[in-house]
Every structure is written in structure tokens, then in C-alpha cells.
Specification:
The complex is a heterodimer. Chain A is an alpha/beta fold. Chain A contains eleven helices and eight strands. In chain A, strands 2-1-3-4-6-5-7-8 form an eight-stranded mixed beta sheet, with helices on both faces. Chain B is an alpha/beta fold. In chain B, helix 1 packs parallel to helix 2, helix 3 runs parallel beside helix 4 and helix 6 crosses helix 8. Chains A and B meet through strand 2, helix 3 and helix 5 of A and strand 3, helix 3, helix 4 and strand 9 of B.
Chain lengths: 283, 393
């Protein structure tokens, strides 16, 4: 275990994001600058004179983490320091909603930085409000009757920009995430990893189920794991025996009121998207 | 060798940035700032400035990017105007609160709405209390010199600085100015010192995290102390500047104030006009004076009082508004005089909004109106909109 992050943190029991943070410092080591927006990952950046990081860390604003990364990365370039990684660790709201413009701009300009989005599918740190990344049928405090729209696909958006390395990952398959981060770190340009990060209080499930849910999301095809190097797609976890989406949904209180039609649409969309990825996959 | 050049305000700031050897620049184009950042981009492209230019996708990202670069220990520059500065607002606080000596060129432009491309100071006045140093130049030479002073002073007190020039009246007006020699600038402005707040894996620190009520007040207090320190520091550095470059700069610039019946107080390009009006009025036997406030933040209360206290009355022209009350410059001056227990009639005039020419006639009207009001011993609690069209009233 890396000592670049402290042992006791005040994240929730069963937090997927914390596991990611530990994996990040393990893979990237001490020459890493980490940025966190006001979100659950800000818990690691700390309060007052306390911090969980033993690497340089900066608390960003919610919408501009990628812009701060642009400046840091450019200064490193000016200083001719190639041995330092710049990492943004932002949630889904800070990425697919309010942070989208700065992220898109930074990716277009080609700065060398690693953007990791821990997707817990709502604004969890402010108390479970709907984000663009909340799936259809999910309860949040601002969608008390369940969200009526589908989840925004940020990965496709960034692929359309021609990002040199992009991947999806899941807290349920942490070694797969670490392998992808290890690849991202050597890319001389912007890289992005979108990680499904189950959240016990937000998804309404027992803390011990985090890994199980992170795996079920992949095994039901709801959340396919793949990477794209210079646009060439490769599925990193083939799903041959598809698990029942119902099994994934029933473990979570947030889907208590999901309708049959919504479940059907989740199933159809998941299968369609997986098939599309298979079709696009490079042999 | 210094050389005399014909230069506009935008290029003057750009030359200052080149001479200051800025290292990372990030900017987003907005009228009337564009030629300023275009010149900087040219300098980098021509190899005359060793810097990186980040052509960001918004002003919000422009300031964020230079905050990131400043945290890495590089000398930085950005520039904006009007609505662009308003979009930066949130990060204006971050730059100052983290004590990063960023220099930002401002081509002053009225805030919407109504939309206007032209000057008033409503954009920078909306940021006046965010903890930045604010300098307002009255001509292109000052624009260049203030840029050099901004880097030097900002880096000493670890605070960001806005160098403000009036949109079009200064940004796009060509004047003769002296372009200093690089060797002199290097003597005046030492290599960038990253200070105590930086991101470096060899000395890791966490920056800008959440604070409790236990520390928030003290951090703000320290910030305020640093800002007020500029009042003492500015004259000392201005002395050094004069020794090297031969030009005198001050927190506020007085002209015939001492025995004046009326002193007109201004910010920015209209200060030159005011000096000319005063000169002519003096020649005609009218005892007028002019005071240009060059450093608006921190507000140099003692200097302003010192230079105005001999006057029989004061007319403050605000080229911006504080709708519903006095203009911001007037608020400062009235507050300073009241606190110092000095009772001189002070009248507030709002003029020159949204690019309306703040010309000699307007300034003459301000002075004559003030004389009349003093004679009639008439008090005014609210500002007089002196150049508003008569049919509106």
C-alpha cells in the first residue's frame, strides 16, 4: 500500500472513490500533482491544516479543474519537467455538467494531463442531486419520482474530439483500472478515464456491496469496459454470459420505483451500445 | 538604449509583458483587449519573448490557467475586458486568496446590459474589493510603466494586479512613449521568485483547501495587511523606478491642487483631459485643480487627503455607476474625509458611461456646477449625472 495517501480518511464506508485515489498514487507514485474539485474527492484534499495527500494537491473550483490542469501542464512544459504527472480527480457532475467546457477546451488544446472521473451518478457530496450522468429511473433528491432521461455519454463526446487515450473502468475491476492508468501516464497528451464508482449512501445499498455492484454493472453490459488508443477501440472485459439487469437494480434503493419500460430501455440501450463497441473494435 | 516609439495602450502593456519576461500567458479574445494579447502572441512567435501561450476557450479558463501556472512558480499574464472580467469573477478571488502575483491587463469596457463595446470602469469596479491591486493609467506611457510596476510590487507583496486602461481611448490611441531598455528592466525586476505557495513533488503541500471559521478571518486579515502594505511600498519602488527609468509615478497624481477652489478627481484617460482643462482655467484666473487616482486598490486615503485638503471643494467624477448610491470613487473619498474629520464640500458626478466622451466641456461643466453648488451651499446626497441628455431629465 502506498504511503502517499493517509490511512484513515473521512470518506464514507464503502466509498468507491477512495479506492480509486489509493490506486492512483500506487500507479503514479510521488511525482504527481493532484487536483480535486469541491466534491467527495475534496475530502482527501482536506480541511483546515489537515490533508490526506503526501503529494502536491490543489483544491479547484467545480467547473474549471481542466483549466487549472492546462496551466500547470503548460508551466511544466515551460520548465522542461517531463517527470511529473498532472491528475484531475473529479466527480460526474464536475465533469459531464459544469466542467464540460473547460475539459473539452483542455482536451482540444492537447495538454498532457490525466483526467479521472469517478462517476457515482449524481451530486453525492451535496446530498444526492441528479446530474447529467444519473441513469434513467434512478431516484435522487431532485428526481424524487425517478430520472426520466438517459445518462449522458461523455466518453463518446471526448472520443469525437480525437483524444489520444480514453478508457472506461469500474471500481469493481480495480486491476483493469490500474492497467489503464499505467497506459495513460505515458501518453504525451490529454487522457481520460471514466470510472463507475458505486456510492452506498447515494445508491441506497449496504457498504459491503460496492465491489459487487461495480462488477454487476459491467457483467450486465450496462457499463462496458473498453479503451481507445488514438481512437482504436478495444473491449477490455468481454461479457459472454450477460447477467440480469434486475439483479443489479434490486440491490439498490435508488431504483425502487423504476418502471418496467425504463428497465426495458436500460436493457435495450446497453445491448445496443455493447454491440456497437464490438462492431467498432479493432482486431 | 531606451527609445521613443509611437504606441497604443494595448501594445504598451504587451511591451511591458515582454520586458517583464512573462513565462506563461493564457487569454481569451474580447474587444477592446484583443490587440494586447495578439501583440504578446506575436512576441512569442517571433522569439522575442520566451513564454508559452495558452489560447483558452473562455476568460474563466484564462484566469484559471494562469492560476495553475503561477502555482508552478512561473511569471504569468492574462488580459480581458468588460463581460470577460465578470466571467472571471470567481477566479479573481482564487488568484488573490492564494496570493498569486498574476498581472492582468484590463481594457476597461462597460458591463452589460445595455451592451456596449466601449469604456467605463464598471467592469473593474465590480472587482474592486476582491483583494487585487488596481492601477489605472491615464496614458500609454503609464500603461507600460504600470505593467512593470505591477510585476515588481505584486511579486513583493504576493498579490495579483490589474493594470487598467480605458477601452479605445487608451487601448487604441497612439501616443509617443519611451520604450525602456531590457537591461534596465532586468535591473528593476528580478527573476521570478515562487514564494511560499507552490506545487512541487519535492516539497509537497496541499493548497486552497476548505477552511473553518477558526482560520478564515485570519487568512483574510493577512491578505488585507498585504494589500495595505502597497501604500508604503509603492513610493519606495517608484523611487527605484525613477532612478532607473527617469520617470516619477505615484499612488495619486496631483496637478495644481494646493490652493484650488475646486479639484476634480478622476481615474484613467480623462485625467489627462482634466489636467488640460485646469491649465486653461488657471490661465483664465479660475483656481481649479486635478487629481488622478492611479492606485485605486488599495485606496491611498492619506495621500488623497493630503493632496486634497488644501482645496475649498472637491468634484469626484465616476466613470462607472453604483446604481442607487454614489459612484465608487466618490464613496472612497467621502469616506476618507469623514473618517479624517475634514469637512470640505464633496460632490459626485457620474459621466462618460459606455464610451461617452468625457471631454473638456463635461469637465468644465463639473467644475462650474461645483462652484455654483458651493456658492449656494447646496448639499447633494446623490450623484449628479452631468452628461445625461437634457430631454431625459
Amino acid at each position: 500500500m502506498s504511503d502517499l495517501i493517509c490511512k484513515g480518511t473521512t470518506t464514507c464506508e464503502g466509498c468507491g472513490m477512495e479506492l480509486l485515489a489509493r490506486s492512483i498514487v500506487e500507479v503514479l507514485g510521488k511525482n504527481t500533482i493532484v487536483l480535486t474539485p469541491p466534491s467527495c474527492s475534496a475530502i482527501l484534499t482536506g480541511f483546515g491544516d489537515q490533508t490526506c495527500w503526501r503529494i502536491p494537491a490543489f483544491q479547484s473550483n467545480l467547473e474549471n479543474i481542466a483549466a487549472y490542469c492546462s496551466g500547470i501542464s503548460t508551466a511544466l512544459e515551460y520548465q522542461k519537467r517531463e517527470d511529473v504527472y498532472v491528475v484531475a480527480l473529479a466527480g460526474d457532475g464536475g465533469t459531464v455538467d459544469i466542467g464540460l467546457q473547460a475539459l473539452s477546451g483542455a482536451v482540444e488544446r492537447g495538454h498532457r494531463f490525466i483526467y479521472i472521473c469517478y462517476d457515482n451518478e449524481a451530486y453525492m457530496n451535496t446530498g444526492i442531486q441528479r446530474s447529467g450522468s444519473t441513469p434513467i429511473g434512478a431516484w435522487t433528491t431532485t428526481t424524487p419520482g425517478g430520472k426520466e432521461e438517459s445518462k449522458k455519454n461523455i466518453v463518446e463526446m471526448l472520443m469525437a474530439q480525437g483524444i489520444p487515450y480514453i478508457a472506461t473502468a469500474s471500481v469493481g475491476y480495480i486491476d483493469d483500472f490500474k492497467r489503464k492508468l499505467d497506459k495513460a501516464k505515458d501518453v504525451n497528451g490529454p487522457t481520460y478515464i471514466h470510472v463507475l464508482s458505486p456510492c452506498p449512501p447515494g445508491w441506497r445499498y449496504e457498504a459491503r456491496e460496492t465491489i459487487k455492484l461495480g462488477r454487476l454493472a459491467v457483467d450486465t453490459k450496462l457499463y462496458p469496459l473498453f479503451e481507445a488508443i488514438d481512437g482504436d477501440i478495444r473491449i477490455t472485459k468481454k461479457v459472454s454470459k450477460v447477467k440480469d439487469i434486475g439483479e443489479y437494480l434490486k440491490l439498490q434503493g435508488r431504483f425502487r420505483n423504476i418502471t418496467k419500460e425504463q428497465i426495458k430501455s436500460l436493457e435495450v440501450d446497453a445491448a445496443k451500445y455493447y454491440d456497437k463497441l464490438v462492431e467498432m473494435e479493432v482486431e | 538604449m531606451d527609445k521613443k516609439v509611437a504606441i497604443d495602450g494595448n501594445s504598451a502593456i504587451a511591451e511591458g509583458v515582454r520586458l517583464a519576461r512573462a513565462q506563461v500567458v493564457a487569454a481569451y479574445p474580447i474587444t477592446p483587449q484583443t490587440p494586447m494579447v495578439e501583440r504578446v502572441a506575436d512576441f512569442i512567435d517571433e522569439g522575442r519573448l520566451d513564454a508559452k501561450y495558452i489560447a483558452v476557450e473562455s476568460e474563466h479558463s484564462a484566469l484559471s490557467a494562469v492560476v495553475g501556472a503561477a502555482l508552478m512558480g512561473t511569471r504569468t499574464f492574462t488580459a480581458t475586458a468588460g463581460a470577460g472580467l465578470a466571467l472571471m469573477h470567481e477566479i479573481v478571488g482564487v488568484a488573490a486568496g492564494n496570493r498569486l502575483p498574476i498581472v492582468m491587463g484590463i481594457a476597461n469596457r462597460a458591463l452589460p446590459s445595455p451592451w456596449s463595446l466601449q469604456v467605463d470602469h464598471s467592469d473593474t469596479m465590480a472587482e474592486k474589493d476582491m483583494g487585487w491591486i488596481q492601477l489605472y493609467a491615464s496614458n500609454c506611457q503609464e500603461a507600460l510603466d504600470y505593467t512593470l510596476l505591477a510585476y515588481r510590487i505584486g511579486e513583493e507583496v504576493r498579490l495579483p494586479v490589474m493594470v487598467c486602461i480605458d477601452g479605445f481611448f487608451l487601448t487604441h490611441t497612439t501616443e509617443v512613449a519611451e520604450l525602456p531598455d531590457q537591461e534596465k528592466v532586468d535591473r528593476f525586476l528580478p527573476a521570478y521568485d515562487r514564494g511560499d505557495v507552490y506545487l512541487d513533488p519535492d516539497n509537497p503541500m496541499t493548497i486552497n483547501q476548505l477552511n473553518s471559521a477558526e482560520t478564515f478571518t485570519e487568512l483574510r486579515y493577512a491578505h488585507n495587511q498585504a494589500l495595505n502594505e502597497v501604500i508604503n511600498l509603492f513610493p519606495k519602488i517608484a523611487e527605484e523606478f525613477k532612478d532607473i527609468f527617469g520617470r516619477q509615478h505615484s499612488l495619486c497624481r496631483d496637478f495644481e491642487c494646493e490652493d484650488a477652489d475646486v479639484v476634480v478627481v478622476t481615474l484613467g484617460s480623462s485625467s489627462g483631459t482634466a489636467r488640460k482643462v485646469v491649465q486653461r482655467m488657471r490661465a483664465n484666473g479660475m483656481k481649479a485643480g486635478a487629481l488622478q487616482v492611479s492606485c485605486f486598490r488599495p485606496f491611498p486615503k492619506e495621500d488623497v487627503i493630503g493632496k486634497l485638503k488644501g482645496a475649498k471643494s472637491v468634484a469626484v467624477i465616476d466613470r462607472s455607476w453604483a446604481l442607487g448610491t454614489d459612484g465608487p470613487l466618490s464613496q472612497e473619498i467621502k469616506s476618507a474625509f469623514h473618517s479624517a474629520g475634514i469637512d470640505i464640500p464633496i460632490y459626485n458626478f457620474v459621466a462618460g458611461l459606455g464610451g461617452r466622451d468625457l471631454n473638456e466641456k463635461t469637465i468644465e461643466n463639473v467644475i462650474h456646477s461645483t462652484v455654483e453648488l458651493v456658492e449656494k451651499d447646496e448639499k447633494r446626497l446623490y450623484p449628479i449625472w452631468i452628461d445625461v441628455k437634457k430631454e431625459v431629465i
